[in-house]
Specification:
Elements lengths: L14 E10 L9 E10 L13 E3 L5 E2 L6 E5 L15 E3 L8
Antiparallel strand pairs: 1-2, 2-5, 3-6, 4-5
């Protein structure tokens, strides 16, 4: 029986990123109240997902937050020419987990 050869660890040199932009409006004909960029990143070679530590968990139109597993970051955004306060003050949610050190 041949000995199993340990695989070399992936160096994570190349990445696949996916960014989805959500337009927060009742319908396509209505001016948006906010925009949200939702991003995930994984290693292109081994497909291991990356996480975004140090951010609160949930969804907010006022600050970046992550998904519960930390693999998606949700970032509020606004057009550069938007009025001050555009997109702020809308309802969101937050979550805490007992024992999770990176939130």
């Amino acid at each position: 029986m041949a000995d199993a050869v340990a695989a070399e660890p992936c160096l994570h040199l190349d990445f696949d990123a996916n960014v989805t932009v959500a337009r927060i409006a009742p319908d396509a004909a209505t001016a948006p109240k906010a925009f949200m960029a939702e991003m995930t990143v994984q290693c292109a070679a081994c497909k291991v997902p990356f996480t975004f530590p140090g951010m609160p968990v949930g969804m907010s139109y006022d600050e970046p937050r992550t998904s519960p597993n930390g693999q998606e970051v949700r970032v509020p955004m606004r057009p550069a020419d938007a009025e001050p306060g555009f997109g702020t003050g809308l309802p969101g949610f937050g979550m805490t987990f007992a024992g999770r050190a990176d939130t």
